[in-house]
Amino acid sequence: MVGTLLASGSVRRRSATAAAAILALALTLTTAAAATFPQKGRSIQLLIGWAAGASTDVGARIMASGLEKELGTPVVPVNKPGASGQMTLTLLAASKPDGYTIGTTNFPSAIVSGLDPARKATYNRKSFQVLGLHVIDPTIFAVKSNSPYKTLRDLVEAAKAKPKTITITTTGVQSDEHFGILQLERMTGAKFALVHFAQGGATALPPVLGGKVDIYGGNVADVLAQVKSGEMRVLGIMDEEESPFYPGIKTFEVQGYKIYNASSRGFSAPAGTPKEIIDTLSAAMKKAVATEDHKKRMADMGLTLRYMTPEQYTKYWDETETVIKELLPFTKE
């Protein structure tokens, strides 16, 4: 009996030693792979959660071009649209964490899809390691030039006096402007009649210009041409600072409503990607966004370039997720 126990203990020790050796070898191989990342000539796949031609797609392709120059290896954009980015996020979360597959993580969609049980996502916040934030496209309220609402306060007071009679667009349920509107309602007691356009700003804008909807709820980049031509006015911007695209237009905060809200676009890798690889990718991203060519191409699209490091992006993700968790139940009313 004693001999049997001793033999059993010996086997366990040998098994433990073998397991430790295998783990050590795996760590050595991972460290070696990370140290040589990226391998020259090996392509990095950049998954894009929206269709070709969409602003997320164009911005991601500009980033891919910059990363390719900085890393010295091909960075191939691959469009995987579907369910507001959920298709890409599903594929990204399941990808091998070796740095050769990265993808777009847009807010609020990346957060909402992981939180809302109805979306049945196979991932959550812990499924991703962020690389950096690229763009913040702040939420705006805009009106036709002949609108009776001259200021944001005019609009809020009218929406309080006559609840759910003033119509305002969104680009769909649980979109960034939907969350922005909900924040304003909860802060002020105003109530708007939301008109959701699931196909995006291109379909939401004509009804406002045609006088069928009172307010355009969208993003900075959406109405540049209309404001420039004098067709529309921007009442306020949900950002910490004024937009360079709308000089003199005040933020919501300056007008008395401390609300920050945006469609923000970043990039992430699968969880478990070695830190050395994350550092290499994020450093390349930082260099890419700092080039004059990158800045110009983004400005030409009317997109607010705002880089965040992985640490800053992680903090921003957590803060945004906290806000969305509080508001998510109200998106179903």
What do these coordinates show?
By secondary structure, the protein is α/β, with parallel strands linked by helices. The chain has two domains: 44-137 and 262-332, Bordetella uptake gene, domain 1 (D-Maltodextrin-Binding Protein, domain 2, 3-Layer(aba) Sandwich), CATH 3.40.190; 139-237, Periplasmic binding protein-like II (D-Maltodextrin-Binding Protein, domain 2, 3-Layer(aba) Sandwich). The chain contains eleven helices and ten strands. Strands 1, 2, 3, 4, 7, 8, 9 and 10 form an eight-stranded mixed beta sheet that branches. A two-stranded parallel ribbon has the order 5-6. Helix 2 (55-71) crosses helix 9 (275-289). It is globular. The model is unreliable at 23-27 (pLDDT under 50).
Features:
single chain; 333 residues; D-Maltodextrin-Binding Protein, domain 2; 8-stranded mixed beta sheet; two-stranded parallel ribbon; 10 strands
Sheet with the most strands? 8 strands, mixed
CATH superfamily of the largest domain: Bordetella uptake gene, domain 1
CATH topology tier name of the largest domain: D-Maltodextrin-Binding Protein, domain 2
Structural class from helices and strands?
A: alpha/beta
Number of strands: 10
Low-confidence stretches: 23-27
Give the SSE order as H and E letters.
HEHEHEHEHEHEHEHEEHHEH
Radius of gyration: 24 Å
Helical segment count = 11
Helix coverage percent? 40-55%
Q: Give the integer mean of the pLDDT values.
A: 91
Report strand %. 15-25%
CATH C-level name of the largest domain: Alpha Beta
- Architecture of the largest domain, according to CATH? 3-Layer(aba) Sandwich
Assign an overall shape.
Answer: globular
Question: What is the total number of structural domains?
Answer: 2
How far is it from the N-terminal to the C-terminal residue, by CA?
69 Å
